[in-house]
Every structure is written in structure tokens, then in C-alpha cells.
Amino acid sequence: MVSRDPEEGHRAATPLELLFDLCFVAAVGQAAVQLHHGLSEGHFAPTSIGYMMVFFAIWWAWMNFTWFASAYDTDDVPYRLLTLLQMGGVLVLAAGVPATFHDYDFLVVTIGYVVMRVAMIAQWLRAAAEHPEGRSCALRYAGGIAVVQVGWLLRLLLPHPYGEVGFLLLVVAELAVPAFAERHAPTAWHPHHIAERYGLFTIIVLGEVVLAVTAAMQEDVADGGWSAGLLEIGVGGLLMIFAMWWIYFKHSHVQRLRENLRGSLTWGYSHIFVFASVAAVGAGLEVAIDADAHKAHISEVSAALTVAVPLVVYLLLTGLLHSRFADAGGRSALISAVGSVLLLGTALLAHTLGVSSAVLLLGVLMALLLTVGLVTQREPVSEAG
């Protein structure tokens, strides 16, 4: 196992990486299902906190493999078998997601997470053994990850609320490992490959949103047939999904990814909110469908906000990323800020418009914000990667 050339031409995601992503989206889907049910019941704070805790485990394991693979993907038998072990770990994690929301039981989720991280330790140890030039960095990764995994297992013994405190401390420790390992001898990851991997995962999560909303609409149709409200939510949701896709890929961040370690980590870490907000929009649309059918135990304004709030998070973050990493300047951030105010204001009108009409307007507003961004951008639309 030797480091790949960071300037390698035509570097693209492999079929194994795409299969890996699909396994992770299964876990994302489970987290979104539980988010939908909790929000429909009005359990906003505990459900949102649980969602972000589970999502961190999913995203962090995915992100670590993605950056490792960009530098050391040998695609031989040992590499594939360790990747298979990671895929098994995420499926175990996905199986434990309902228990974390219903019983606050993190045992199965933690076991699945640690399995994935142990496989990652093995990958780093192999890199240390076979790539002398990168040995110090690989050993720092392996040692740092191993220490934190012991912490995750010990956290299972902590009672409430110390378990939450332990979770936050371990999140900080996990985030610190790459900064510690990469500071003096960075890995040779490929910027075009990384940008493509993040873009592909964004698309796959958007696809999971389409699947979840379609299933919710089919269930509603089976119960009571088509309605004007259901059609409004369907059209509004489609406009949102398309606008979110276009907004993300409106600029390429590749050229500025390698400027410095802090910038690379900022770009990579901030995507937890991009991915989590995309999946949360899908959960919010399902809540809106429930509210329109009078199945949700929340107000119409609250139901509309379950869609608008993750849209705002997504819009603000992508605007900041475009401003920082794509030379879009303050224009992109300003459009996002103004758009966020309009999105929240539209959701608050749901008590007079109805939740379905509010969702339709949210979709139209996202399309208009995209149009404004396209009209005011000076550079041509570019593909990620």
C-alpha cells in the first residue's frame, strides 16, 4: 500500500466507493425515519439532538474512509475486505438507530461505529507498514482513533446526563485526530476525487429524500386518495430537491481545497450540516404530508418549520462555502441570508395559508433564489470535481 499521486489525471470514484456510500445512506435513511416520527409527535428538542448524535457517527465514519481512500486506495483484496468490514459496521449501526430514539440505548449504534473505526485503524496500520514516507502520519491516525474508540465504549457506562457530556468530549477528540495527524506530514489526498466523493454523497442523500417522500405520498394516497394539498407538497418538494442539487453544484471548490490544512478541515467538517440538512428536509416533507392529512400532533406552522429550518441551514452553509472556496464573494452569502429570512417568514404564514401551500411556496422560493444566484454569477456554471 503506497500513497497515490494527488495530481493523478482522471481520478474518479470507484464502484466500491459507490457501494460503500449506498450502505451509509441506509443508515441516513433510518435516522431520517426516526426524525420524521419524532417531529410529527412534537418531540422537537430530544429528537433533533438524537438525530445529530446518530448522524455524527454516520458522517464521521464515512468521511474518514473517504479521505483515506483518496490517498491510499489500492483496491486489492485486503483493502476490499476491510472496506467490507466497514460496510458491515454501518449496517449494524443502522439496525441500532431506532433504539437510540425510542429507548436512548446507544449500545448497538456504538458497536457498529467501533467496528467501522477498528477497520479504519487496520487500514492505517497497513499504510504505516507498507508506506515508509507516510508512516508517522499513519501511526498518529491509528493511535488517535484507537484511543477515542476506547472512550466511546466507556461512554456506554455513563448515566444521563454524563453520557451527553462524554459524547461532546469524544466528538471534539474525533475531530482533533486529523488535525493532529496531518499537521506535520499530510496525506496525499486528491482534491478532484474528494470534491467528487462529497458531491456524489450529496446526490445519493437527495435520492434518499426522493424515495422517502414518494413512499409517504403513496401511503397517503392509499389511505385517502389524491388531494390538492398532497399535490402542492409534491410539487414544492420536487422544486426544493432540484434547487438544492443545483445550488450545491453551482460552483466548484476544487482549486482552493489544498490551500491549507485549516481550510481543508473546515470544508470537510462543515459538510455534516450539508448532509444532515438534506436528509432533514426529507423528514420535514414527510411531517408536512402527515400534517396535511391531520396525522401529525403539531401545528401547521410547526410542520412548515420542519421543512424551512433545514432548508435555511442548507442555504446558509452552501452560501458560505461558495463564498469561501469558490470565489463567489459576498454575493452568494448575501443571497443565502436574505433567502433564509424569506423561507422562515413563509413557514410562519402556514397558519393562514395551510401547510401544503406553505410548502409549495417554500419550493417556489428556493427556485427563485437559485435563479437570482444564476443571473448574478459572472463565471460559468462548473461541475464539481
Automatic annotation (TrEMBL):
Ranges that cross the membrane: 49-69, 81-100, 106-125, 137-154, 160-177, 198-217, 229-248, 269-289, 301-321, 333-352, 358-376
Record-given protein name: Low temperature requirement protein A
Keywords: Membrane, Transmembrane, Transmembrane helix
Origin species: Saccharopolyspora endophytica
Pfam families: LtrA
InterPro entries named among the record's database cross-references: Low_temperature_requirement_A
Domain of life assignment: Bacteria
